[in-house]
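[job 4417] fold queue: 2 targets
>>> target A
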Amino acid sequence: MRRNRIFFGIGFLSLAGLVALAMWGAAKGRPKAGTSNPPVYTADGKLVLPGNYRDWVFLTSGFGMNYSNGGGSNPMFTNVFATPEAYRGFQQTGKWPDKSMFIVEIYAPASHGSINKAGHYQDKFQGLDVEVKDRSQPNEWSYYNFDPAATSAKALSGGCNKCHSDNGAVEHTFVQFYPTLRDIAIEKGVVKPGTGIPLTH
């Protein structure tokens, strides 16, 4: 009987060890908190389009927005998403954590379809714009444009960085147009001086 108890005790310890080992292995392979949606790049430095961005936090939508006085001849719908980690980080500190990503979906408008007789709805997909904060890259903030069928894109070298730096309400982002975050930015006092916050606020 004593011998059986010894074997049982050894077996129990072995089982406990295996369980602990399995838990350690699972924890080791799990992404660290705050980095479960990091930017991924190809060997030649292109940004890989995240396949799960529709599961991210929806920030806002717009229609026909244009940053020049002439306006746009082809107004588009836009939908803006941010990684959950970026959203939580902003809620807590009013700052965007490193590896934050933002995606802007672009859709052409339509007005008559199915039962709709007035107004506009989002119709044909036109592509994506992506903004990334990543200190490991040549520029901390980088911008990418994806054609509708593209799965990767290289960083843009135009004036996106300067425009966002000069006009973004918080860091390089247009929080002044994000009703889900505007109040947080005002409350935490992180709005860039001179930024034009909409009059409703």
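>>> target B
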Amino acid sequence: MKDYEVFKKWLGDVMDVIYGPSHNWPFKALVEDYKKTKEMMKKPKRKRARNKDGRYKGDDKSTPDVNEAWENE
């Protein structure tokens, strides 16, 4: 079961307790917001950069704001 499905079920159970089992709660909007937030929090996968020979590249110390030794997949 995915995280947002667990959240949806949990929230539905809470709303059942508060408003009764016949409530009409907008789950779709909440689930979409949860998915967007989770997607924004993901870190990009990175792998070591390689040169033409297949060896690992080193970081160029003259560019402190860029790390050439790593690249995003």
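[job 4417] complete. Note on B: The CA atoms of residues 51 and 57 lie 6 Å apart.
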